Amino acid sequence: MAQGAAESDAGLDGGGEERGAEEPVVSLAEVLAENEELEKEARAVLGGSDHERCSYSQGAVKRQALYACSTCTPPGEEPAGICLACSYECHGSHKLFELYTKRNFRCDCGNSKFKNLQCKLFSEKTKVNPANKYNDNFYGLYCVCKRPYPDPEDEIPDEMIQCIVCEDWFHGRHLGAVPPDSGDFHEMVCQACMDRCPFLWAYASELTVPTVTKVTPAAEDGGLLNVEETEEIKKENGADHQTRTGEEKILQNNEPSTSSGSVCSEVKNETSTCKLQELQAKRHLHLQENTATFWPHTWRSKLCTCKECMKMYSDLEVAFLTDECDTVLAYENKGTRDQETDRRDPLMDTLSNMNRVQQVELICEYNDLKTELKDYLKRFADEGTVVKREDIQQFFEEFQSRKRRRTDRMQYYCS
Ligand SMILES: [Zn+2]
Ligand SMILES: [Zn+2]
Ligand SMILES: [Zn+2]
Ligand SMILES: [Zn+2]
Ligand SMILES: [Zn+2]
Ligand SMILES: [Zn+2]
User: Fold this and answer.
1) Residue 280 Cα, ligand 4 centroid: separation in angstroms?
2) Given pLDDT bands bounded at 50, 70 and 90, which one contains residue 92?
3) Domain-by-domain residue ranges, the chain?
4) Which residue from 43, 336, 358, 364 has the least number of CB within 10 angstroms?
């Protein structure tokens, strides 16, 4: 799953290209470009996390790739999360739920939540990590509908979007509003978290990316209608008891007498420098709705950081909102950056120094390698096990020996 918009595409069995007679025509550059995307995503998610050392000694890691093991801690048991290195070393053959990344988490591997497992990487852990937060994701269930992902019983194509506050994942259709195009927003806050952090509504009218319902008043399909209805219900239940006829709406805009009594629009906020108070003064412009909200890049930097607001964030346990480095994007960029340096693509360098025959031979070999590696990795995907370094090593050793046998048998395997 990817940040912002996760689609169920990335998979080892994707692609499915044919192995025909014209295969060598596919340029190496094309083959590489095709894999680049998948590779980039993997690098982004895993790049910022340590592959070899359990992250426990770092304490609660600001953000890391995280897994839950349904072999060790199945639904019904206490939920537990394990770091990337532990997923390889201590749970290699287990059934794991990939939790993508989570913030402020300390690896649980082998602590009191595990009945029959000792951590091979860092066994001196305390019994529990009291500051860790858990949700149904640790049992492989997501969204308000509590379904697995991918969901074998769900035939509706829908993207999963992660709430940046609770870090659960939600179906686009279960957010109370039709999400904007994934490219148009950067982060999402789910309905429940908006309820828990009502101050965000004050920023919403200034900052959020409008959802489809707000732009199109006349609902045409069923989905939109439902949203309109829920909005109506919420408003009827709300303190203002407003009905949603056009006229009254206009009236309400002209006579902002319902809320705190503050004077509208051109409020030159007296002495206060609190952005939130300023916004709250004109809050009637944006009524609280029963929907998730969608926020653009750098919106976090617009949140007030006065003393009172900072205290409120910390009381609500959302102090991370003022930290741009908390975003998944910042984490992914770090992962990509860290690895870019030792990834100058030696293949491309070598290729440009080769003659045509050498190039074709290399392409053939690469295609063989690619197909075989894909088949090999697919077995792991089918079994739901994690690929370990030794597995990859073993593959290359076997591939080398197969190649030797092949070239012994026939001089020109594929040209
Ligand atoms: Zn660990
Ligand atoms: Zn396990
Ligand atoms: Zn471990
Ligand atoms: Zn759902
Ligand atoms: Zn949430
Ligand atoms: Zn403030």
Assistant:
1) 32
2) very high
3) 55-139, 160-332, 353-415
4) 358
Q: What is the rounded average pLDDT for all residues in the chain?
A: 74
pTM above 0.85, yes or no: no
- How close is the Cα of 81 to the center of ligand 1, in Å? 9
Cα of 54 to ligand 1 centre, how many Å?
Answer: 4
Q: What is the 3-state secondary structure (H, E, C) of the chain?
A: CCCCCECCCCCCCCCCCCCCCCHHHCCHHHHHHHHHHHHHHHHHHHHCCCCCCCHHHHCCEEEEEEEEECCCCCECECCCCEEHHHHHHCCCCCCEEEEEEEEEECCCCCCCCCCCCCCCCCCCCCCCCCCCCCCHHHHCCECCCCECCCCCCCCCCCCEEEECCCCCEEEHHHCCCCCCCHHHCCEEECHHHHHHCCHHHHHHHHHCCCCHHHHCCCCCCHHHHHHHHHHHHHHHHCCCCCCCCHHHHHHHHHCCCCCCCCCCCCCCCCCCCCHHHHHHHCHHHCCCCCCCEEECCCHHHHCCCCHHHHHHHHHCCCHHHHCHHHCHHHHHHHHHHHHHCCCCCHHHHHHHCCCHHHHHHHHHHHHHHHHHHHHHHHHHHHHCCCCCHHHHHHHHHHHHHHHHHHHHHCCCCCC
Residues with CB under 5 A from ligand 4 (ion): 143, 145, 171, 174
- When mean pLDDT is compared across 19-28, 68-77, 103-112, the lowest value belongs to 19-28
User: Cα(111) to centroid of ligand 1, in Å?
Assistant: 10
Q: How many whole angstroms from 87 Cα to the centroid of ligand 2?
A: 8
Task: Give the number of the ligand closest to the Cα of residue 304.
Answer: 6
Nearest ligand for residue 90 CA: 3
Going from the Cα of 202 to the center of ligand 4, the distance in angstroms, rounded, reads 27
In this predicted model, what pLDDT tens digit does every residue of 152-181 receive, in sequence order? Answer: 898 888 889 999 999 999 999 999 988 998
Ligand 5 centroid, distance to 167 Cα (angstroms): 6
Ligand number, closest to the Cα atom of 310 = 6
> Measured in angstroms, how far is the CA atom of residue 162 from the centroid of ligand 5?
8
